[in-house]
């Protein structure tokens, strides 16, 4: 289905359908930027004694409550949309939200943060391999963009020191990667009957409920604290960091992320999401005083270069199909900007 027919995707710019925002790239980069704030806000809370599980649970619960009001308004009394799409909402909440974060924190408990994050961001590779198995071999630009983005990710994470390798931790990290890949498949699936804000709100509610259940059963340690937090040169009340984590890094991040994925498709959206790591480094520099090194900046350039290669490959394939050249290029329907395989 062509992205231009998606009523929930990025707004069109006047007089053009190929503008930066209309293409979905602008919204995708915005989503990565606000998602990247989560690390800085969360770290400021963790340093005062919050447990990771408590920070994630508060994040999801607060965001779910905020999005509930506009989500109800978006439904406009058409509650059958929830009934018709309940499986999508549940999968998004359990897999794309709760499980992904829970598995990642389990990986962090056994591995360094850098290695755990690198494992989780193998999701784009999983998506490319899935599309390869379901359709055909990736084109040269897509394969090149894959390698370039992953190389850049390694540089941004700066994995040059001694790294503790734990087999169970690696399995947790891979599980998080699979969940993240499924997240992109779910959010990229064009759905004219389910507004993005409803999917985000419903998924966050399901995710929050799952986190509270895990805490109640003892699987997830919970520790809160009301001490002041430190952000940059400012000492702020704990609720400032929590509000930033909830409103910016969750509410705006998830809604804009779903809109971007529906406009770009799962493959391109997953690659643009790699820039979240670069944004996270920049935010950590500004808010935590962690200045990125030259190797990390170089990695950021490689990530952006890989994203551009994949996006150019998508646009070239779409143009060829639109011009009636599908038979000559051999492009499959799965390579359209907005087409994805159904989530199993």
Write the layout of secondary structure elements.
Layout (H helix, E strand, L loop, with lengths): L24 H11 L1 H10 L5 H24 L4 H5 L1 H25 L2 H8 L2 H12 L5 H18 L9 H22 L7 H21 L12 E3 L2 E3 L1 H27 L1 H7 L2 H14 L5 H29 L3 H4 L15
Antiparallel strand pairs: 1-2
Helix pairs in contact: 1-11, 1-13, 2-11, 2-13, 3-5, 3-10, 3-11, 5-6, 5-9, 5-10, 6-9, 7-9, 7-12, 8-14, 9-11, 9-12, 10-11, 11-12, 12-14, 13-14
Count of DSSP H/I helices: 15
Number of domains: 1
Order of SSEs: HHHHHHHHHHEEHHHHH
**Topology, number of strands:** 2
Major beta sheet summary: 2 strands, antiparallel
The helix/strand class is: mainly alpha
Shape: globular
The strands making up the biggest β-sheet line up spatially as 1-2
Report Rg: 20 Å
Give start-end ranges of low-pLDDT stretches: 1-18, 331-344
Helicity range: 55-70%
What average pLDDT do the residues reach? 75
Q: In percent, how much strand structure appears in the residues?
A: under 5%
Report the end-to-end length measured between terminal Cα atoms. Answer: 20 Å
């Amino acid at each position: 289905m062509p992205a231009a027919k998606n009523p929930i995707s990025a707004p069109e710019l006047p007089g053009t359908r190929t503008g930066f925002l209309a293409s979905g790239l602008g919204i995708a980069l915005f989503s990565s930027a606000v998602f990247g704030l989560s690390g800085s806000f969360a770290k400021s809370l963790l340093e005062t004694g919050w447990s990771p599980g408590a920070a994630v649970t508060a994040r999801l619960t607060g965001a779910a409550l905020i999005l509930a009001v506009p989500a109800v308004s978006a439904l406009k009394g058409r509650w059958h949309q929830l009934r018709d799409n309940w499986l999508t909402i549940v999968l998004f909440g359990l897999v794309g939200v709760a499980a992904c974060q829970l598995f990642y924190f389990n990986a962090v408990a056994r591995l360094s943060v850098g290695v755990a994050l690198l494992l989780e961001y193998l999701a784009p590779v999983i998506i490319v391999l899935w599309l390869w198995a379901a359709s055909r071999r990736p084109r040269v630009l897509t394969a090149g963009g894959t390698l370039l983005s992953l190389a850049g990710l390694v540089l941004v994470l700066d994995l040059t020191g001694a790294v503790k390798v734990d087999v169970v931790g690696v399995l947790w990290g891979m599980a998080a990667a699979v969940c993240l890949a499924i997240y992109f498949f779910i959010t990229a699936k064009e759905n004219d009957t389910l507004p993005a804000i409803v999917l985000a709100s419903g998924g966050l509610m399901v995710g929050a409920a799952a986190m509270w259940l895990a805490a109640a059963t003892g699987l997830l340690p919970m520790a809160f604290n009301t001490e002041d937090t430190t952000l940059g040169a400012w000492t702020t009340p704990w609720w400032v960091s929590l509000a930033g984590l909830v409103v910016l890094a969750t509410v705006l991040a998830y809604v804009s992320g779903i809109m971007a994925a529906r406009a770009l498709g799962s493959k391109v959206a997953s690659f643009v999401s790699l820039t979240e790591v670069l944004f996270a480094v920049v935010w950590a520099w500004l808010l935590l005083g962690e200045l990125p090194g030259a190797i990390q900046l170089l990695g950021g350039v490689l990530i952006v270069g890989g994203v551009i290669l994949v996006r150019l490959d998508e646009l070239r394939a779409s143009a060829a199909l639109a011009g009636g050249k599908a038979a000559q290029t051999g492009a499959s329907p799965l390579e359209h900007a907005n087409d994805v395989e159904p989530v199993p």
